[in-house]
Amino acid sequence: MTEPTLTVRFFARLREELGTETLTLPASEHQTVADLLTHLASRGGVWAQLTGGQPVMVAVNQSMAKPSSRVQPGDEVAFFPPVTGG
């Protein structure tokens, strides 16, 4: 039996800086978006920016989410920089 997973996607500047577009992670290790962010930032280097000074937007299953939002096995979590207009 395979372990339940989350699909994590990165867009725009984050995809370029992190050098990846998609990760698959065990769902059992992450209960909230904040847990997932902490786990990813613990990789160090450019990954630390996910919990650093630059804001990061997040969506779970294509709906805007907050750090306290719960994640479930099979969810897609997307991280992207804030969009500014002008």
Structure explained in plain terms:
It contains two helices and five strands; from the N terminus they run βαβαβββ. With 86 residues, it is of the alpha+beta class. The chain starts with a strand and ends in a 6-residue tail after the last strand. It is globular and about 40 Å long.
The low-confidence runs, each spanning 5 or more residues with pLDDT under 50, are: none
Radius of gyration: 12 Å
Strand order of the largest sheet: 2-1-5-3-4
In round numbers, the mean pLDDT is 91
The tally of strands reads 5
Biggest sheet, open or closed, and with what strands and sense?
5 strands, mixed
Shape: globular
Structural topology:
Elements: E1 5-10, H1 13-18, E2 22-26, H2 33-41, E3 57-60, E4 63-64, E5 76-80
Parallel strand pairs: 1-5
Antiparallel strand pairs: 1-2, 3-4, 3-5
